[in-house]
Every structure is written in structure tokens, then in C-alpha cells.
């Protein structure tokens, strides 16, 4: 057995590394660069019932150690994702996690119901944390009761396990996590982006046309690690961690904090080969750390009195 | 095919005020076909700055290629500081460039470049002239000290220069010169600031016009939806083009600029 | 009149640049490096009624583009600050903003009452946002009602204007800001640190002895800018902005977002001369931007149809 | 006085496995008085990495100074990559070093260094020997390929080497050697990993012992309270010392280590 294979609800992963939603489109572009079958899974771009154009440009801005985006959930809509993108992805031996979004509960339910029927969709990722749309999105992600109710509704219709993607823009992440667990979530993915802004000194105006955007990249990693550390001790469902991962070492840090798998977002733009690179490097790192299997590392930072084998990078 | 390669710096020198010409050695030059394609450059290891910088290909050589950039913010300043022999992480070639084949031998192509929109015109002029297309270049700058590649472009045909302050060439904009060439162009190729591209589109100076757009980018390869624009036939709707992978060169009238 | 002088409640500032609380001690160390009278003001280290030792070490950890700290409000206590630190600072011609903290309302009231009587304390900064103490601190800063009540109590006893320092670890920063404004706050200072964590791969344990810590430095700047942009449009009291400032350009960005003055924290560690450097560079930057006075820039990003003179750095 | 200066690299070379000796030119060398003081080094412009790195002064020369560091994480790796002629932003000298004056001419001082705790011992040995103090150095490393400065220290007196794996010198720890020198030391000076310092404190090898502590630092100048430790007379209370500005050298028994 490989030291990297992971079983999570609905997901039989060859390895715990997957591109994060919105940073990999529907895989077409990256498929020109490497074989997608080597990935643990793919989190596809958020899908809404109808096609969306998203926000005006500029949609991205660089920040110290990170970037802001305000794409605004641009996507070709449920029908096209179901009839074109997902069937195209079937050529690869890789489970798909379908990120679903909407403005109303009904939107989520509609997308969940249909996408969960696609043969290669092995799990849903409920995006209640998109900061870049006027209605829905993050509103569900900052109110525990709304989050719980939505999770329950989606669970009722979904034919595959449901993961809920949490927003870091909250006072108490544990409260939301526990609410969606009560709502029946099979797992959590965290974190989505932090709400941020950059102002251009040349114009005096925000760089993004949408003014605010979601902060991602290495700068948010400590926030992600903290939240996963807190949440993983208080829920009994697994967490797929993300937020600033740039390397195999970062993946390990997420596991130590409490994650059971890891997703890479922004770094795909910086280094389009980053996912296969990390997957290749992980086994050697595990060996250095004296771990037989990566799952041993999940939550090691809070499982007391178990210090790791001395490891020097 | 898109490749990622550590390309060695062969030369990196100022050619005008804050304008640098950088020659990079790399096998990915063999993948480069069109002017107007671009490379995505990681100017520093680590995350300061984090994102790659898109820069047009100015010249495709055998085993190397040239890019020309303005020292502007953090990224291009770091690039300007790099010396010969150092390696730079380059992703490319990206996007679809100018379709040189649209100009037939014997026809007249007018190439319009504004500021750092000039560089792709050099490779294009080279390709067109090689095929027997009659090349006229019009290049515009702010001021005399910003002018570059006049001589280089002159190898392939007539060159007109405009400067905004009149300190070199003709005072005014590239469109002022275009106006004076009425009827001569069978095809126009242009790259430069958005207002210039709009004026050229509106001016309809030739039966066919190709424009190279600029947009803030994330991935540069079509995966992140950072750089989309509406198509002209559906300006409020859902249809779109990605500047990075469908463009950056579009035919006039194809997308909303 | 200088292009940099600013009048804020209680504060007559030569210039809008001041070191942020906790990053400058009580000024003694930096006074060996430059004349403190050149600063706009000094925000001194949080003071509690009794002396505090703070948390065990390690108390700091570096993160991508930032740092975590979990000092835990170490300070010599009210008496010593009042009788030794503040009198020592009187030799400098610089207004002091006294940062006050505590575990209970009474703690805050006690410190506020006494420190506001010190002749060189021209304003108080109510720290309801320290993430590194077990009781009090951030608890006040995430609950609008508690924040409002505390502000009111402190206002009753303070002899100088009261600024409230907001925590970014909240779902809705505007709600808290408006609550403390209603409580009578004369101004806001924002942002304090984001809660974060780093795990050491060598040990498998959090680097900080306190496990979590407060994230500061350039990486948090987009969050600070966004929050100031949002809050400044919804309150009518001035904001002293902070969070990742490294340069005069950053100070301008904070003004454009809505700040009326700016504080520099972490960068004092990176470049101990940063405050005087920024103060020196600001007038030239203003000239380039076509601004006669820095106060013209406050909130320019949301005061529509007023683009700045073209500015190239 | 503490100064901030861009110091030019005179040399930067490996002297053992992952151990580098860096000589920097700078007027701040004139401010340096004691071994055991340190400098705070900004290893890169920008914020990657953000914080300065504390490194002990190994040798104070005329117009220059030497530091010795282990290539460990990001910061020291970047430092190791720097070449001669490049400038490095240094803040220093910081802290209070070893009080060489506590050793009187004719007395015997035992200097104990573990790993990258060895460097400050070089300047100290130089200062002590100059005054006529009898110097014995004991230096400890993991393994033979990590050993450095044995020869350099030998200029000033006897040197004993211990390696954990026994591949060089005596197998074991510096304290094993110290044990064997019973009664010879009038004063002990030590720098190295905390367990080593604790063992030396507990061993009470001499009437006076001075230890150089390590702690994660923010400012390095005493302003941020990152690096405090309890004092021994009040181990649970409010009294404290700052490693950066009160230390890093403390007398044994002064603070809790
Ligand atoms: C397809 C394409 C081709 C280009 N070709 C050239 C060229 O040949 N020569 C040249 O000098 N410039 C060219 N540019 C513009 C060039 O990408 C920017 O000048 C450069 O990214 C600025 O980086 P910086 O770090 O110096 O500036 P900063 O302002 O520090 O950059 C911050 C962020 O904003 C982005 N950004 C800033 N300005 C622009 C811009 N005008 N367009 C897109 N992104 C921007 C940067 O990429 C970066 O992500 C091209 C842009 C595009 C999209
Ligand atoms: C007073 C003092 C003197 C020192 N003298 C020397 C010396 O002469 N030679 C030498 O090789 N090392 C010395 N060190 C240790 C040295 O500071 C660290 O090895 C170095 O900071 C590691 O930086 P990095 O970027 O390579 O590692 P990283 O692990 O990437 O550093 C991350 C952060 O942790 C801090 N850090 C990591 N390890 C240590 C450590 N052991 N002590 C303090 N901070 C640490 C870094 O400063 C940085 O802020 C000294 C430390 C102190 C406090
Ligand atoms: C350009 C961009 C688009 C994104 N789109 C989505 C999305 O559609 N759905 C979603 O759940 N998250 C989206 N995200 C958030 C990422 O999936 C991820 O949670 C976040 O970026 C943090 O990870 P990172 O720091 O590795 O990028 C997007 C992020 C970026 C940068
Ligand atoms: C080491 C350290 C100690 C701090 N102590 C305090 C404090 O005592 N009181 C307080 O209100 N803020 C404290 N802060 C927060 C800063 O004042 C500031 O709000 C924050 O660091 C963001 O600014 P920066 O990114 O410029 O550092 C501290 C920050 C740091 C880094
Ligand atoms: S830059 Fe990512 S799609 Fe164009
Ligand atoms: S490092 Fe800041 S007080 Fe010592």
C-alpha cells in the first residue's frame, strides 16, 4: 500500500493532494501540462444553476505574499458542466469533487441534485464562503443556522457525500463547523479566502473592479493552520485543508494541524506543475519524519506527548 | 506546447528610459511561433513577489528569445536588476499571437505599437517581411527618451514615430499618423494601451485589424478566469474570451475592449 | 502649515505616523536610535492593572510575509507605567496614546481612569482585540454589545478621548465599529492581529508556546485596507489605520482607504528607523500625488468621481 | 551604540558541513566591544523572509567583523548564497556579551562552545589571551564533518573537541570533557544549545559561569518582549530579563534557562 493513499467519505484518493476549486478550471488547461490521473482528486470550479459571467475586470491583484481575486463565480452553468465538462473529465482516473454555489437554497439544491449523479463526481463541496458575489455565498457561511439548514437540504438530495467549504471571515469558526456537522456534512474543506482589498496609488481607487476580493496564497497560511487546528479537535468529520500551500512541507503542516488531505490553490498559478511535484516529494518527506503513512500525521500537533522523529529539512 | 524552463540570461540592458531588452536562452524558444504570444515570468524565487509577470515575446531566435519590458513596479524592477548568467523561471509560450498569415505577400501591413506595445511588432515585422509583405511601422511614445526599436523596425520597412510631447518624431498619437496613411493598409496589427486600441478599432483603418489586449492575470493559461472579456456579439451576456489563452490577440470586433 | 499635521480627538499630531502598541515598548529602546519628538504620537505597550509576565516562550514565529506573536500582554502594570514610563516619556514633545487592557470591565476602567490623568497621555486606546490572553481581550472585541458597554464605561472615567482598537477576527467589522461609536468612542484604531498558528515540522508541535498567536506584517495589509474601507464609510469618527505598513506608499494606501492617521507595528522590528523614514518621505509623495495636505487623501477611494492626479512611483 | 548599516561582504565561505564564515565590512565594527554580542541581519530585501536573523559576532576586526552561521532554514540559506561584494543590512551590535574583565590575568578561563555556539568563543579567547588569561577551549559537535575553528582557537590555548558520534576528538559531550578538568577553571564561559547550558549551570564547574542564551526574537533591541525569561530569584513572578538586550549573556543563576 502506498504511504499516500487516503480514504475519505466518497473519496478513494491515491494521494492526498488536489487542486483547489477555482484554481484549476475544469482541468482542461492543466491536462496539457501533465496527466491529471496522477492527482488525488480535482476540485472543479464552482457551478451555479445558470451560467455566470462574473465580475468586471480587473479581477485579480497581487498583495504581499498573496493575491486577491474577485472572479465572481464565473462558470458555464449546471447543464454545460454536467453535459460537457464532467464527461470530458471521465477520461482521467481521478475522482471529482464538485464545488457548488448559488444565491438561494434552491440554487444549491438544484446543482447538488444533478451534479451528484455524474459518475465521476464522488463528493460535493458546498461553497458557502465565496466572498465575491452579492447574494448567497458567504452569507450562508457566516451564519451557523443558515449553514446548517443548507447543509441538511443538500444532504437530502445528494447521492454522494457532502463537504462544506468554510469561510475564514468569521468570529468563531468552530461554531460554524459544528453547525454544518450537525447538518449532516460528511467533511469540511477549509479555508476559503479572506476578504481583502488593495488600492492603486496611481488612481486612488481599488484595483479590483469589484473593489474587495478574496485573499489567498502563502500569506493566509497561518490563519488556515490555526482554524484547522481548532476545528479538527472539535468535529469528528475529516478536513481537507487549504490556504497558502506551496510545498510538500506545507502539506505536512496542514496534516499536523488536523487535515486529512490538502488542496493547492494559488500556487497552481505560480508553478503549474506544483501538484505533481508535491505528490512526488511527499513519500521521501514521510520517510524523513519516520511516518509509515501520511494519515498518521493528521492532528499530531494536538495529540499530546507524541513528538515526531527529529526532522531537519 | 507550453513549457516551464529556467532560462539563462544572455543579455539584459536598458535601451531607453526605464526600458530593458532581455535575451533569454531556452529550449522553449523552439515552441514559439507567433509574435504577440507572451511568456509568464517568475521574477524571484519565493513569494516576493508571488505571481508571474506576463511579457510579450519581442523576437524569436534560434535557441533564445527576446523580451522588452518597462521597469515599473516591484516585479519588473527585480527583473531589471538581474545579471547575465542568472536563470529566470519562464512559462511559455502562452496565448495566440498575431496571425501573420492573414497578410498576403505584396499586401501592405501597418504595425502599430504604443510604448511597451512596440516589442511584439518587431518579431511580426520580421515574419511579414520574410514573406514579402510590405511593412509600415508606426510607434508611439511619451517622449524622446522613451523611444526604442525605431532602427530595428526600419530593417523591415518604413517607420514613423510619434511622441506625445513632440520631443521626437511627430507630435501626437499613433492614430494621427494612421490617419495620414489613409487607404494604404490592407491589414493593421496593433499593441498598446487600451485607449489606443479602441481608437484603432473605431478608426477602421483597414479591412482587417488585429489587436493585442492587456489584462491583469492570474494563471496565464486559461484556468482562473481572471482575464476574461465579453464578446462583441453578446456584450452583456455569458459568452466570453480569455485574454491569456484565447488572446491576447483578437480581431477587431471580436471582443469588447 | 505642514502638509502632514493632523488634528484628531485629543491628538494634535505633527504628522500622522506613530509606532503601534506593543511594537515600541515604552519608547526607551528606540530613543537610543532617534529623537522620539519627531513622531506623530506613540502608542505605548498595553497596560493592565497589575504587572503581567505574559506567555511562555517562544512568543514569536515568522510566517510568509508576516509574523505571529503571543506576548500575552506582558507589562509592568499600571503603577509602574504611570509613575515611571510616562514621566520618562515627558522629555519628548510627543503625545502618548495609552493602550489599555484587562480581563474584566473593572480592569479597563481602573487603568483608563488613572492613565488618562497623565499629562502626556492625550488619548486612550482600548485594546479589546488582543488574541493572546485567556480572559478578556478579544472576547470584548468580537461581541458588539460587550464592546459598546465597555466603551461607555471607559468613556465615563476617562479624561481624554477614547479610541477603540478593533479585532479583525470578526464576521462583521462594521457592526462592532458602529457599536463602539454608539458607546461613545472618539475614534477607532484598526486592525489588531489576525489569529494564526505555525507548526514546526521538526517537532510536530506549534512553534509558539501559546500555540496560537496574532498575525501581523505585510501579509495582513489587504485585510486591514478592506476593513478600514468598509468601516470608514459607516462611522463618523476617525480611524488610525495599521496592519502591514512598511512604507510611505502603504501609509497613503491606508489614507485612501479611509484612515486619518497611520501606525507602524511589525516593520519597526525589520527596520527600526522606519517611522522617521516614512515621515521624511511623505511630503514628496504628497507632492507627486498633487495633494496639498495628507488629510485630503482620507477616504478618497470611496469618494467617487475624484480620481487622483496621475502618479507613478 | 546600535547602528544600521549596509555592510559589504568581504568573504563568505563554507568552513564545515553547512557552516559558513562570513566577513562583513562596516563602520559598526567600531562599536563592537564584546564577544557574545550579536548582530541582527536582514538577509533579503522585501518580506521574504520578513524578520532579521540574530547571529553572534565571532570576531571583531579593524573595519570588519566575522560571523559564523549554520545554513538551516530560509534565512541562513539565502545568506549562504550571497557573494562577495554584495551588501547586507546589519543592525548591531546588540546585547551584552561575555564580560572578559571577569577573568583576571593569570587565571584560567574555560570556554565551552556547542555547534554554532562556538563562534563567539573565538573573539572571547582572543580578548582573554591578550590580557594574559589562560584559555582552555572545549568545543562540541555532532560529527567530524561539523567541526570548525579548532585550529583558530588553538592560537590562544588548549582546545578539546567532542563529537556526539565519536567521529572526531572525544566521543560524547562537552560536559564529559569539562568533568575531566575538575578544579582547573576559575571561570567558565559557554554558548550552545539550551540542554548544554543547563548541564553546565548544574555542573558548577567554576566559581563564576557565564552563559549565552538563545531565544526567538522579534526586534532584537528590547522593545517587543518576545525574548524574555524569568529571573531565578522569582521564577514564577513578574520579574524578567530580555535575552536580546539584557543578555544574551547572563551569569549562571541569574535567569531560568
Ligand atoms: C499579454 C501581456 C503582454 C505584456 N507585454 C508586455 C511587454 O512586452 N512589455 C512590458 O513592459 N509590459 C508588458 N505587459 C505588462 C506587464 O505585464 C506589466 O507591466 C507587469 O506585469 C508589471 O509588473 P510589476 O511587478 O513591475 O508591476 P506591479 O504593479 O508591482 O505589479 C503588480 C501586479 O499587477 C500586475 N500588473 C501591473 N501592471 C499590469 C499590466 N499593465 N498588465 C497586466 N498586469 C499588470 C502584475 O503582473 C502583478 O501581478 C504585458 C501584459 C500582458 C497582459
Ligand atoms: C543571540 C543569538 C545568537 C545566535 N548566534 C548564532 C550564530 O552565531 N550562528 C548561527 O548559526 N546561529 C546563531 N543563532 C541562531 C540563528 O539565529 C538561527 O539559526 C537563525 O535565525 C535561523 O534562521 P533561518 O531563516 O535559517 O531559519 P528558519 O527556521 O527559517 O527561521 C524562521 C524564524 O525562526 C527564527 N529562528 C529559527 N531558529 C532559531 C534559533 N535557533 N534561535 C533564534 N531564532 C531562531 C528565525 O530567526 C526566524 O525568525 C543565534 C540566535 C540568537 C538568538
Ligand atoms: C482565482 C481564484 C478562484 C477561486 N474560485 C473558487 C471557487 O469557485 N469556489 C471555491 O470554493 N473556492 C474558490 N477559490 C478559493 C480556493 O479554492 C482556495 O480555497 C483559496 O484560494 C485558498 O487556497 P490557496 O491559498 O492555496 O489559494 C478561488 C481562489 C482563487 C485564487
Ligand atoms: C509583538 C507585538 C506585540 C503587540 N502588542 C500589542 C499590544 O500590547 N496592544 C495592542 O493593542 N496591539 C498589540 N500588537 C498589535 C499591533 O499594535 C498592530 O495592531 C498589529 O501588529 C498590526 O500592525 P503591523 O502589521 O504593522 O504590525 C502587537 C503586535 C506585535 C507584533
Ligand atoms: S489569467 Fe487565468 S484565465 Fe487568463
Ligand atoms: S527580541 Fe524584542 S524584546 Fe527581545
From TrEMBL, chains A, C:
A GO cellular-component term linked to this record: cytoplasm
SUPFAM superfamilies in the cross-refs: FMN-linked oxidoreductases
Catalysed reaction equations from the record: (S)-dihydroorotate + NAD(+) = orotate + NADH + H(+); (S)-dihydroorotate + A = orotate + AH2
Keyword Zinc: no
Entry binding sites for FMN: 21, 45-46, 99, 127, 165, 191, 217, 243-244, 265-266
GO biological process, one term: 'de novo' pyrimidine nucleobase biosynthetic process
TM stretches of this protein: none
Pfam families: DHO_dh
Catalytic residues (positions): 130 (nucleophile)
GO molecular function, one term: dihydroorotate dehydrogenase (NAD+) activity
Source taxon at top rank: Bacteria
Residue sites binding substrate per the record: 45, 69-73, 127, 192-193
UniProt domain Dihydroorotate dehydrogenase catalytic: residue ranges: 4-286
Pathway: Pyrimidine metabolism; UMP biosynthesis via de novo pathway; orotate from (S)-dihydroorotate (NAD(+) route): step 1/1
Cofactor: FMN
Family note: Belongs to the dihydroorotate dehydrogenase family. Type 1 subfamily.
Known function: Catalyzes the conversion of dihydroorotate to orotate with NAD(+) as electron acceptor.
Record's protein name: Dihydroorotate dehydrogenase
Organism of provenance: Mesobacillus selenatarsenatis (strain DSM 18680 / JCM 14380 / FERM P-15431 / SF-1)
Recorded name of the encoding gene: pyrD
Automatic annotation (TrEMBL), chains B, D:
Cofactor(s) annotated in UniProt: [2Fe-2S] cluster; FAD
Zinc-finger keyword on record: no
Cofactor binding comment, as recorded: Binds 1 [2Fe-2S] cluster per subunit. Binds 1 FAD per subunit.
Pfam families membership: DHODB_Fe-S_bind, NAD_binding_1
GO terms (BP aspect): 'de novo' UMP biosynthetic process
Binding site for [2Fe-2S] cluster: 219, 224, 227, 244
GO molecular function term, any single one: electron transfer activity
Recorded metabolic or biological pathway in which this protein acts: Pyrimidine metabolism; UMP biosynthesis via de novo pathway; orotate from (S)-dihydroorotate (NAD(+) route): step 1/1
Record's keyword terms, sorted: 2Fe-2S, Electron transport, FAD, Flavoprotein, Iron, Iron-sulfur, Metal-binding, Oxidoreductase, Pyrimidine biosynthesis, Transport
Residues spanning the signal sequence: none
Residues reported in the UniProt entry to bind FAD: 53-56, 68-70, 75-76
FAD-binding FR-type domain mapped to chain residues: 2-100
Function statement: Responsible for channeling the electrons from the oxidation of dihydroorotate from the FMN redox center in the PyrD type B subunit to the ultimate electron acceptor NAD(+).
Subunit text: Heterotetramer of 2 PyrK and 2 PyrD type B subunits.
Family: Belongs to the PyrK family.
Record's protein name: Dihydroorotate dehydrogenase B (NAD(+)), electron transfer subunit
Gene behind this protein: pyrK
